[in-house]
Every structure is written in structure tokens, then in C-alpha cells.
């Protein structure tokens, strides 16, 4: 068992000033199932992208040795040729094509440039039997459920003579039955001699199936453990342990009356209207209070926030939003803004900024009516408003007439914050406010959040980084599978406790 | 705020001049190109391009495309496209002809009803695009066929004319020389009223610029140094006055020029300064961000198409009036000219970028190429070839500057 199929040594990967991986080491033995655990943003997916060539050789430091040979993959095709196949969280299947066509996409069974359909469908049938999927190979993939699509992905990997199979959160979107089936399948593949690396948040699954566990935190390898007999608590403490001092500006909270109450809030998925995404959630925010919302990926945090903010997500929404003791109508974004709500999205480039326009037009975008009392924008006033925020928030830009696309991530985030501060909201919902931002700018964002609370506003912070929630928030809600599974005060909140609540319901 | 502010002002000033220059180059590239094309054809035609009558011709011949371009640039900024405007021009021209020629309605009423018909057409298309969610490309492609078919139905497959004099005057005619002529020395006689209007426009422009400058200074913003400020105004004034003098020497100001000037000014202000205009830019720039910023995306999109319909109807009236007949093939391929004008004028294919003045300049570039090449006797297929290449070059330049800006 000492035969190592894969060794990654000293892997360091930087993105525009942010170090995502720092001297990471990973050793996988032949024929085992190796789990990689870590918080969101710990660097798991980045590490796998380095391995599979998504981040090509030369864009990172360190070495990859596969089956005893050093590798320098220029792209996914190179790694696949060596038998390394990655299945991403977002499935990469073409819904309109049949199962067989998907299985051999880019790898077609062809004769003189023409596809041999008999051979394709026959080989597809054999692969489907190996993964235990009883479907006709000519069925279009979009007719299959997510669980079966996942199996098609694995069959597709088998079609490429996979030696090392990498699965990124394979069961995140699956129900319990489909998850169990998938884990059984991985067990079977191990018996066939296929090595797997599995990234998962579901620690019960990890302890059930894995042979070894490597824990990443903040882009570093913390430890590699044998999985036998390891407790989930042991893994959690490895995932979260780090010091919190000096990363957060000091603040003395002055908490006032309740300002917003979200009651019995239930939301269904727009793509699968029978799936509950947010399940009867109730939250309370008070003036001057910073409240955290913790949850793993897919727990429904963003869905909760966006559905409250102008029904921007979801269908079949029920529940009440009560502000200052009165129920308010937040069915359109405009109404939500008029009632003093603001939502800063987790994806500022897609949902927050008009990147081709300059800083001042972005700052004024949500509160434009304030600059245009009779329908005509006072551009000078607009300029000075943007200038005011540029100074007070220290937005580093040559001028407020610079396109936002040329700003760094942290400064772009400040522009989005300025946009919402200009609407003078009573409640701000900040979704991953520091994602993709370097440490220095994070501190500035935290200061801004503190100032917002000190001005008597209520702030709801959604974050995948538990230390951030603990360092920033007066109170934290934990969300798991759409349900509020815990509410912890600052004094009682620890990462371990939060993680316990966040994984509740998944440990069944 | 607990954040530091000390470090920025210096960096802010140091970075400024260079960046201002590159931004200016990208935005003003279109005007420089226009100037070069005018100079080129002036040389090639031995000055025939800039004779009084020819300037008048260029304006009158392209007026309807320019009107369409004003509507089209808003549609494109909003991230859509309108392929139906040529057919709408034909249909509204036909409606106007039926109302005036066959039904004998007074012309102002007939024009008003025609514009309303344009609004209804735009609303119908806007409904499918904005509220039903069908891509504008499909909706207006369908509209292109449907409205052409309706044109044939309304006209019974034949031309209807002649139009009342007033409508012809609007399309083709000139302002009266109420104040008589004055001598301009070697340039000969020119219409005094036209000259006075030209001087008034220049004075108004200069005053407005000066007032803006003062306001910006009072807000502590960076403005051009005074000599550059004066030079810019002097240049604009010289161009406007030169055109006006030439026109005054010919037959006074064309009415469509007056109309175009009003539209250009009105729509520029609307696009840049009204909340509605800003929302159009926001939607085209990032639909999701606009939605999450409280922009009523559907309503704004709907009204952009209504506006396009009204302007198409206006172009329809003017085109029919110019030909003195509403015909079944009127407006053929006008949508292509309008779209080309918008893109040559700096609109971005993805939406969110573009200027009304840019679209008008783009339309004029094509008009000057058309006119200049026919003056030197180039065959029409070569004109088409050049226009196609100019469109490609303009968009290539835009893509290139954008890519360079990102790197």
C-alpha cells in the first residue's frame, strides 16, 4: 500500500495578488479513496484545477509526479491522456445530447471522421452497466435526474480509461438515496483498482468511504490522516483552527430595537419547483447589530437573501417580512429598496457592477432618484457624491470617471458598497463581502461594515469563512439544507459549534 | 470612517492626464475619422463635396436614416436590436398617405396619427421583447415581414401620392428667407435668417459650455485648462458656422436639419441626463446588476421600443414626403443603415455603450461615403463594398481599444 500514484509537492498558486495555495503537499496512494476536506475557500478546488491542468503548468509553482513521472500539463486534455479525470461540481454535460454522445464527447468512436453509431451506443451500454445506470444510451441527458447525470459523468470518466478520478462535491446536489448509490459505486471502482480523490463537505460520507483524509486550510496543507476511526470533530478542528487576533477592527456594539424580522420564510427552487431551498426560516435583525448567516455551499444562504430582496430568486415563496413592526411588501427590488433594504451580491461582477461604466455611474445606480428630483440627473452632484465615497472609503482609482472594470477586487467591492450606502438603507445584506479580496482590503471592508452598524443600521453578513463571521458578528445563524439549525451569540459561538449546526441534517 | 484617506489625492492627480488622453482617443476616434473622410472626399472631388448644394443634399438625403439611428442607438445601448425599422418606415409612410391623400385629413392630424401608429407598432414589439422575453432579433425579424406585408395590404400593391405640400416641405423644403439676403463679399449672397440662427446656436452652445464649466468648478471638479476649453468651442463654432454659411448661400436651412438638430439635442440630453436614459445604459451594461439595483428592466425596455416605433414613423413620413409617394418598397434595408450608423458611431455589440451624437456621426460618415463616391463616379457595388469595410473597421477598432484597455 505504500505505492504512491500521485504526489503533489510545494504547490503554490497565486491569483492577482491573492495566494490561493501556499506550498501545498498531497500524496495519494494507488487504489485508495482519498478525501480532501476544508472550508469553502481553503483551496481544495484550486488544487484540483492545478492537478487537472485547468491551471496549466507554469501558472503555479511546485511539482506534480504521477505514476513516478513528473508532469507538466498544459490543459485538461493532457491530464486526461494520462488518466486523470476531474468531475466538477457543476456537471459538464450537454443536456440536448444523448447519454452515448456525452460519454464520447471529444473522444468519439469514429471511422474515417464519421461517427460509428453502433459501436458508440454499444460501448455506452457497457459503460452504463459498469456504473449501474439502467438507461437507454440514446436518452437525452436532460431527461435524467441530477443523480443519474452524476453517474453519466463517472461513466464518461471510465470511457477515458481513468486511473485517478477526482470528484468535486459529488453528492452536494444529490438526495440520500442517490448519494448512497454513488458512494457504493466509488467503493466498487476502488475494488477495480481505480484511485479516487473526493472533495466533500459531508464529513459522514468522508469517514464512511475514505481511506485517507488531507485537510487544507487557508491554502495550506494542515495534515493527512488515516480515515479509519477518525471522528468528525477531529476533522472539524483541523479545518477551522487558526488565530483570529488582529484581523478584525475593534468595535463596541450598540444594539437597539428590532428592525427587520423574516418570518416562516419558505422558498422553492425555480428549476425544480417541488424542491424546498429555504425551509421555514425565521431571522431577526436589530439596529446597530451585525448578524452572521453561516452555512455550507448549497445550504440556501444566497437563496434566502435574494428571495427576500425583491423576490430575485425562487418560486413558491411564502412567509412575512416585518420591518419596524409592520409587514412590508418586498416583491420587487424597487419596493425592497424603498423599504430600506440593500443587498450586496456575492458575485459583484455578475450581479453588482456595470463594469463598462465608470465609478460614479455605478455609485449612483441604485439611488439615482435622489440625484434626479425631477427626472433629470444632476451630474455635478453625482460626481461629488462619488467623490465623497471615493475619499471616505479610500477607493483606489485614478478618478471617479474610471471604468470599474479596471479596479481591483477590493476596490470594486467598495464601489458596490458605496452604491448601497448611497441609498441610505436600514438593513444591509452582504453576501460574501470579502470573497476574492486580499487581506488588507478585507480589513477595510470590515471597518466599513462596523461603521454601518455604528450608524444604527442592521447588517446581515453571509460568509463561508467562519472566522470572519466570528470576528465580525454579534450573533450568527446557522443554516443547513434551508433550515435555521442554530443561533449563537458572540460569546458562545465557536467554529466547532457552528460547523456542527451547519452540518446538522446532513449527518443523518 | 476609520479608513485612511491621506495617500490618495496625489496618486489620483498623477494618474489623471494620461488616462484622460486615452479615454478621449477612444471616444473621439469617430469624429477624427469623420473629419478625415470629409477631407479625403473634398480632395477627391476637387471641393465638390462641400459646395452649398451638396451639403444640403447630404443632409436631406440622409435625414431619415439619421432619425432611425437616434432610435436605434438607444435600442442597441439597451442590449437589443431592431430589424423591423425599414418595414415600419414603409408601413407608416403608407398610413400617412392613406390619411392625407385618400381620406383628406389635415396634415398635422395625419402626422400625429401616423406617429401614434408608430408607437403602437413599437409597443407591440416591445411587449414581446420586454414582457414575454423573446429575443429582439426574432421579434423584429418577424416584425420586418409582418409590417412589410401590412404595407402591401394598406397600399393595395401600388404607390399612393402626391402628398400635401406641407409634408413635402418638411422632408424636402427650406426655411423662408424672411429677413432677406446679405452680401458676404466673395462668397456672394446668403440668407440672413439662416446666418442669425447659426450664430444663435453657436452662442447658445458656448454659453451652455461656459455655464457647465463654472458649475463643475464650483463642485471642485477637474476641467480642461481655459485655452483648451476655448479652442474646443472655437472649433465646434467654426464647423457649425461653415456649414450654416454654405447652406445660407444655397437655399437657407432645410427643415429636416432643424428637426434633426432638435432631435439630436433632445435625445442626447435624455440619454445622458434623464433617469430613463441612465437606466437604458444600466440595463445594457449589466442586466442582472440593473435588476438588483431596482431598475424596472421590463418597462424601460418596452419604452425603448415604443420610442423606436415613433421615430420610425417620423422617418416614414419624411421619406414618403421626400419621394412624394408612399411605395411598397419604401425603407428597404434602412434597418441595416441605421444599425451600421450606430455601430460605426461607437455602440458596443453587447450593449451598454454608445452616444446619440456618435450614431449621428456614424450615419453621416456613411452618407458622406455614399455621396462622395457617387460624385467621383464610383459604381454602386464599390460604394457598398466600402461601406461594409468601414463598418467592420469601426467595430474592429472598438474591440481593439477595449482589449488594449483591459490589458
UniProtKB/TrEMBL annotation, chain A:
GO MF terms, alphabetically ordered: ATP binding; ATP hydrolysis activity
Broad class of the protein's primary localization: membrane
Gene3D superfamilies: P-loop containing nucleotide triphosphate hydrolases
Pfam families named in the record: ABC_tran
Protein's organism: Saccharothrix carnea
Gene Ontology cellular component terms for the protein in this record: plasma membrane
Listed SUPFAM superfamilies: P-loop containing nucleoside triphosphate hydrolases
Alphabetical keyword list: ATP-binding, Cell membrane, Membrane, Nucleotide-binding, Repeat, Sugar transport, Translocase, Transport
Name by which UniProt lists this protein: Monosaccharide ABC transporter ATP-binding protein (CUT2 family)
Locations listed in the record: Cell membrane
Membrane topology: Peripheral membrane protein
Entry-linked PANTHER family: CARBOHYDRATE TRANSPORT ATP-BINDING PROTEIN MG119-RELATED (PTHR43790), XYLOSE IMPORT ATP-BINDING PROTEIN XYLG (PTHR43790:SF1)
Domain ABC transporter: 6-243, 260-506
Lineage: Bacteria, Bacillati, Actinomycetota, Actinomycetes, Pseudonocardiales
CDD domains to which the protein is assigned, alphabetical: ABC_Carb_Monos_I, ABC_Carb_Monos_II
Automatic annotation (TrEMBL), chain B:
Location within or outside the cell: Cell membrane
Membrane topology, as annotated: Multi-pass membrane protein
GO molecular function, one term: transmembrane transporter activity
Subcellular location, principal: membrane
GO annotations of cellular component type: plasma membrane
TM region positions: 30-51, 63-81, 87-120, 127-147, 187-207, 228-247, 253-270, 300-321, 333-349
UniProt keywords, alphabetically: Cell inner membrane, Cell membrane, Membrane, Sugar transport, Transmembrane, Transmembrane helix, Transport
Function: Part of the binding-protein-dependent transport system for D-xylose. Probably responsible for the translocation of the substrate across the membrane.
PANTHER family assigned: ABC TRANSPORTER PERMEASE PROTEIN YPHD-RELATED-RELATED, XYLOSE TRANSPORT SYSTEM PERMEASE PROTEIN XYLH
Name of this protein: Xylose transport system permease protein XylH
Species of origin: Saccharothrix carnea
Amino acid at each position: 500500500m505504500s505505492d504512491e500514484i500521485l504526489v503533489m509537492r510545494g504547490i503554490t498558486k497565486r491569483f492577482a495578488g491573492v495566494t490561493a495555495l501556499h506550498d501545498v503537499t498531497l500524496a495519494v496512494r494507488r487504489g485508495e479513496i482519498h478525501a480532501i476536506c476544508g472550508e469553502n475557500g481553503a483551496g481544495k478546488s484550486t488544487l484540483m484545477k492545478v492537478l487537472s491542468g485547468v491551471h496549466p503548468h507554469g501558472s503555479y509553482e511546485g511539482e506534480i509526479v504521477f505514476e513516478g513521472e513528473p508532469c507538466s500539463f498544459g490543459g485538461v486534455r493532457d491530464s486526461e491522456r494520462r488518466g486523470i479525470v476531474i468531475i466538477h461540481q457543476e456537471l459538464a454535460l450537454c443536456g440536448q445530447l444523448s447519454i452515448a454522445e456525452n460519454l464520447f464527447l471529444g473522444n468519439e468512436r469514429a471511422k474515417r471522421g464519421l461517427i460509428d453509431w453502433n459501436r458508440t451506443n454499444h460501448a455506452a451500454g457497457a459503460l452504463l452497466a459498469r456504473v449501474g445506470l439502467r438507461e437507454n444510451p440514446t436518452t437525452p441527458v436532460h431527461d435524467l435526474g441530477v443523480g443519474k447525470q452524476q453517474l453519466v459523468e463517472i461513466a464518461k470518466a471510465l470511457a477515458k480509461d481513468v486511473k485517478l478520478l477526482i470528484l468535486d462535491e459529488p453528492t452536494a446536489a444529490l438526495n440520500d438515496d442517490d448519494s448512497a448509490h454513488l458512494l457504493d459505486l466509488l467503493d466498487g471502482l476502488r475494488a477495480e483498482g481505480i484511485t479516487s480523490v473526493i472533495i466533500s463537505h459531508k464529513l459522514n460520507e468522508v469517514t464512511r468511504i475514505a481511506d485517507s483524509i488531507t485537510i487544507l486550510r487557508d491554502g495550506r496543507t494542515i495534515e493527512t490522516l488515516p480515515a479509519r476511526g477518525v471522528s468528525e470533530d477531529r476533522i472539524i478542528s483541523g479545518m477551522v483552527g487558526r488565530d483570529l487576533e488582529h484581523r478584525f477592527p475593534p468595535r463596541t456594539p450598540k444594539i437597539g430595537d428590532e428592525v427587520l424580522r423574516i418570518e416562516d420564510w419558505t422558498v422553492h427552487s425555480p428549476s425544480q419547483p417541488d424542491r424546498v431551498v429555504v425551509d421555514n426560516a425565521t431571522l431577526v435583525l436589530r439596529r446597530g447589530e451585525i448578524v452572521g448567516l453561516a452555512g455550507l455551499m448549497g445550504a440556501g444562504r444566497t437563496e434566502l437573501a435574494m428571495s427576500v430582496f425583491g423576490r430575485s430568486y425562487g418560486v413558491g415563496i411564502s412567509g412575512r417580512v416585518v420591518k419596524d413592526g409592520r409587514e412590508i411588501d418586498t416583491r420587487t427590488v424597487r419596493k425592497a429598496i424603498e423599504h430600506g433594504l440593500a443587498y450586496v451580491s456575492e458575485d459583484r461582477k455578475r450581479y453588482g457592477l456595470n463594469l463598462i461604466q465608470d465609478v460614479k455611474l455605478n455609485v449612483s445606480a441604485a439611488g439615482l432618484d435622489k440625484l434626479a428630483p425631477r427626472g433629470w440627473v444632476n451630474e455635478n452632484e453625482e460626481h461629488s457624491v462619488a467623490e465623497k465615497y471615493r475619499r471616505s472609503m479610500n477607493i483606489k482609482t485614478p478618478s471617479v470617471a474610471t471604468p470599474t472594470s479596471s479596479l481591483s477586487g477590493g476596490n470594486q467591492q467598495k464601489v458596490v458598497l458605496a452604491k448601497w450606502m448611497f441609498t441610505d438603507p436600514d438593513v444591509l445584506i452582504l453576501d460574501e463581502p470579502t470573497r476574492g479580496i486580499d487581506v488588507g482590503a478585507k480589513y477595510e471592508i470590515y471597518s466599513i461594515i462596523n461603521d454601518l452598524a455604528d450608524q444604527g443600521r442592521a447588517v446581515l453578513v453571509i460568509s463561508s469563512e467562519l472566522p470572519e463571521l466570528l470576528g465580525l458578528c454579534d450573533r450568527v445563524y446557522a443554516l443547513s439544507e434551508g433550515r435555521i439549525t442554530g443561533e449563537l451569540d458572540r460569546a458562545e459561538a465557536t467554529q466547532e459549534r457552528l460547523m456542527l449546526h451547519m452540518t446538522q441534517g446532513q449527518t443523518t | 470612517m476609520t479608513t485612511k484617506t491621506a495617500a490618495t489625492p496625489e496618486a489620483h492627480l498623477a494618474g489623471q492626464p494620461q488616462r484622460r488622453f486615452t479615454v478621449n482617443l477612444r471616444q473621439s476616434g469617430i469624429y477624427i475619422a469623420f473629419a478625415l473622410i470629409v477631407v479625403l472626399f473634398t480632395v477627391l472631388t476637387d471641393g465638390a463635396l462641400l459646395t452649398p448644394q451638396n451639403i444640403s443634399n447630404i443632409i436631406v438625403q440622409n435625414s431619415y436614416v439619421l432619425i432611425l439611428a437616434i432610435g436605434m442607438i438607444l435600442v442597441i445601448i439597451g442590449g437589443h436590436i431592431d430589424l423591423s425599422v425599414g418595414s415600419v418606415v414603409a408601413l407608416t409612410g403608407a398610413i400617412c398617405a392613406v390619411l392625407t391623400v385618400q381620406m383628406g385629413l389635415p396634415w398635422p392630424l395625419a402626422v400625429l396619427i401616423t406617429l401614434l401608429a408608430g408607437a403602437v407598432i413599437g409597443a407591440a414589439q416591445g411587449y414581446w421583447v420586454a414582457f414575454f422575453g423573446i429575443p429582439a432579433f426574432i421579434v423584429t425579424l418577424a416584425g420586418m415581414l409582418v409590417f412589410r406585408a401590412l404595407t402591401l395590404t394598406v397600399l393595395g400593391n401600388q404607390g399612393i401620392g402626391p402628398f400635401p405640400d406641407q409634408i413635402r416641405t418638411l422632408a424636402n423644403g427650406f426655411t423662408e428667407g424672411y429677413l432677406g439676403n446679405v452680401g458676404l463679399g466673395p462668397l456672394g449672397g446668403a440668407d440672413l435668417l439662416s446666418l442669425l440662427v447659426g450664430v444663435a446656436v453657436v452662442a447658445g452652445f458656448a454659453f451652455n459650455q461656459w455655464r457647465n464649466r463654472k458649475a463643475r468648478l464650483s463642485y471642485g471638479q477637474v476641467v480642461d485648462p481655459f485655452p483648451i476649453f476655448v479652442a474646443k468651442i472655437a472649433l465646434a463654432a467654426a464647423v457649425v458656422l461653415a456649414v450654416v454659411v454654405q447652406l445660407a448661400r444655397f437655399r437657407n436651412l432645410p427643415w429636416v436639419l432643424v428637426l434633426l438638430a432638435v432631435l439630436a439635442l433632445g435625445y442626447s440630453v435624455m440619454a445622458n441626463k434623464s433617469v430613463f436614459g441612465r437606466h437604458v445604459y444600466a440595463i445594457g451594461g449589466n442586466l442582472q446588476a440593473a435588476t438588483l439595483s431596482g431598475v424596472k428592466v421590463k418597462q424601460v425596455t418596452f419604452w425603448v421600443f415604443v420610442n423606436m416605433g415613433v421615430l420610425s414613423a417620423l422617418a416614414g413620413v419624411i421619406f414618403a414626403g421626400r419621394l412624394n409617394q408612399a411605395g411598397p418598397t419604401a425603407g428597404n434595408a434602412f434597418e441595416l443603415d441605421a444599425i451600421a450608423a450606430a455601430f460605426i458611431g461607437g455602440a458596443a455589440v453587447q450593449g451598454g455603450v454608445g452616444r446619440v451624437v456618435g450614431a449621428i456621426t456614424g450615419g453621416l460618415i456613411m452618407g458622406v461615403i455614399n455621396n462622395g463616391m457617387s460624385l467621383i463616379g464610383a459604381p454602386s457595388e464599390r460604394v457598398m463594398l466600402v461601406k461594409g469595410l468601414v463598418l467592420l473597421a469601426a467595430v474592429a477598432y472598438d474591440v481593439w481599444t477595449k482589449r488594449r484597455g483591459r490589458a
